[in-house]
Amino acid sequence: MSAFSAIGEEREIDRDEFTPGIEPQATWCPGCGDFGVLKALKQAMPEVGRNPDEVALFTGIGCSGKLNSYFNSYGFHTIHGRSLPVARAAKLANPNLEVIAAGGDGDGYGIGGNHLIHTARENHDMTYIVFNNEIFGLTKGQTSPTSPKGHKSKTQPHGSAKSPIRPLSQSLNAGATYIARTAAVNPNQAKEIIAEAIEHNGFAHIDFLTQCPTWNKDAKHYVPYTDVQQSDDYDFDLSDRTEAAEMMRQTEEKLYEGEVLTGRMYVEDARPSYGEEKQAIGEMPEEPLAERYFDEDAEWERTYDNLLEHHK
Amino acid sequence: MTDNELIWRIAGGSGDGIDSTSQNFAKALMRSGLHVFTHRHYPSRIRGGHTYVEVRAKDEPVQSRGDGYNFLLALGDSFARNPQEEAYYGKEELKPLYENFDELREGGVLLYDEGLLDEDDVDEIGLEEAAEENGWHVVPMDLRGIAKEHGREIMRNTAGIGATAAILDIDTEEFEQLIEQNMAGDMQEANLNVLQDAYDAASELDIDHDIEVPENSHDEEQVILSGSNAISYGALDEGCRFISGYPMTPWTDVFTIMSQHLPEFGGISEQVEDEIAAAALALGASHAGVKSMSGSSGGGFALMSEPLGLAEMTETPIVLVEAMRAGPSTGMPTKPEQADLEFVLYTSQGDSARVVFAPANIRECYTQTRAAFRIAYEYQIPAIVIYDQKIQGELRNLPASHFDEEPNADPGSVLTEEEIQDAAHHSSGKFQRFLHEPEDGSNVSPRSIPGQKDGRFLATGNEHNPSGHISEDPDNRIAQMNRRLNKLDDIRADLDENAGHQTYHGPDEADYGILVWGSQQDTAFEAVDRLNENGHSVKALGVSDMMPYPVEEVSEWLESVDEALVVEMNASAQFRGLTQKELGRYGEKLSSLLKYNGNPFEPAEIVDGFETSINGEDLAATNMKYLPAAGD
After folding, report:
1. Which residue from A minimizes the CA distance to B306?
2. pTM over 0.90
3. Residue range B483-507, pLDDT digits in tens
4. Do B264 and A76 touch (CB under 8 A)?
5. Å from A110 to nearest chain B CA?
6. Distance of alpha carbon B423 from alpha carbon B335, whole angstroms
7. H or E stretch at B71
């Protein structure tokens, strides 16, 4: 038996394997869009053929952070906004793991905004799902980085003077190689996009629109939306950075004008992932580092053998 | 004052090659059989600004910087500011000369580069009077001229070495060999010529002085290295193969050394966007099964408080290095202080526990970094190695055999897949990662690594039940809190049995004690030797374990003395406070000698401070503070 025999195991994967048993009970509110993410993620797993033991899911804090309580894989519920740096290193330590990170709009675009830029820039081979409901939910309804300008909340009673962040454009500029927006109200598209993102070799950022029936009742997620891939009105080349940028600009404008456009916005297949880049320059071993600690034949050098010569 | 030693100080501007020259000088002396120690002083500037390095050489192991020095090589600051700024800053190029006057001993030698420093300017700073008063032997030499003749002005430092060798009657063979090893082609030839010419020129001057460079030969092979080297090598030998960091002085040193060597050891180094990310990456790598470390200095470590608490709550092993510099805030970036102790002990919210080791010297930097990894990975707890800018940059020789130890790649309390199959699982399918009462009776639960079959668990910063699910159940809370905190008792017992981190110095029985920690330990030990020579009855204890604190050991030692002086480099007596807190008493027995001006103690200052304290007098020196015992 190898050290990580769950990795690459070939068998039929059932989505129910990702459902924990009797505990815990989901504490999301009735009607919460987060259920849609959970469902889409579970449905995507059999499609990508990954079993629960080879998936490492990293979350931040907030309602989205509860995802890995209800998703039965290896989980790491980290700290507010920090799921990406923790996840990145796990992928470098063991590139054979399927690494997925998840956070909310406050978590991922506010406190964790810096990490998103750098993770996208480095193009780590992982999937990042941001539950975007345009509100801070678990802290009870404050304005978030994606709330529309003028949004009123207890902490911004006169209406927010800030324009919302444009996460898709930002990720494109930073260097993400798979960018999509989907929504809990379109489960089929959501499942497909998550499966594609997982299989994509590079950093995949999914802005996942979720509704918050408790704190954001006027949110636009209930209005009809358009899948840009299914509409003749939005014909653009997914792999063309300029066309994708224009599409994202329109998408992000229209989102706040009440028209919701979803779908794949940018896909770049040629760029190597960060791990591959590091391997190419000799800064990362070919074999997963984590395996070495279980390999009885691994040779562990002493500093004495090669470093102390400089000091004699 | 001991005179069977050479303390050579080279002074110039940042960028004048002071560091590399002093390193070669120290290495050459070590190769000739002497014991050496270097002390660095530099400003937070890239080019220019007064910087110096002292190399202290003796025929016996050198523990610390000395009291002052007896040979000055003043190169002058070749990066001095432009003349327009002179009115404000003064003649900066002269600073490496006159700013070093205070500590040059009587009868010392002062060699300066008259090629760079104008004779009239030198007259103005009162060199002649000072030399007469102190019996200095002043040697002006055109080092710049000699260097230029063979190549470039920057070789002034090689000329300085050649002249030093001639004046001190040191064979130049070792210097020549180092030049041959480190350089090639024209550079090598030019430097060899500069060295020889300066040697010849200085030999003709026939300077009559009393400095005798001792002779010695080592009975085993020696190496010379810094505290940062030793921490890095300790980490590598303990199987650390992942480091993540963000540059900050003085932590950058360890980060740089590790980044240079990790790829050749098959490891990974990551420079990331900030220190929160740095610590978070180290956690992620450790979670995925790799022994990993991160670190920073004060301000950067502040950002790590979140991931540090997460490491503790999720019981993810991690080693952090905290290289202290003077604070608060960004403080003095290139000056040492021991003022982050309380910060490192109590960083992060809640009742938190971590292991904190404070190595006292380069030898301990290696052994205690190894111990930090072993403890962190066996007990699934964050471990911090706290040291300061002084140990970070100083060089010291020690036997190469000190590093001749087997590597330890053991990832600690991690199960194999076979063991996971037999372990307890929750009805949700999750592995019982955080058992209240592990089967072996310890407080350490078994651990699995992502990718292992049937080892799934949830690591969370929220309080959680044995399988990792978030729980606010009161009984579970108590069980988990107790188990996590009780690890400290187990670790204390482990350390008492295996480590012997605390260092005793001086006679077994003495009336007075000096209690010290970290980088000031060996300086204090030298002071203790002198105090006993002067007829006092003093012994010293250097404490390295900050958490868990060696309560029994220190109590026993304190019982054996009438009073103890706690010596540390901060203004608020942090270690003394820790000692009183941990021991719950002894406030009436402990007084403090504190220094926080950016420079480490010299042995004579501790001697003075001690004598003042037992005489009940006020401290005359203004660069230190004396804090009496409670009730005094």
Report:
1. A79
2. yes
3. 999 999 999 999 999 878 899 999 9
4. no
5. 15
6. 52
7. strand B69-76
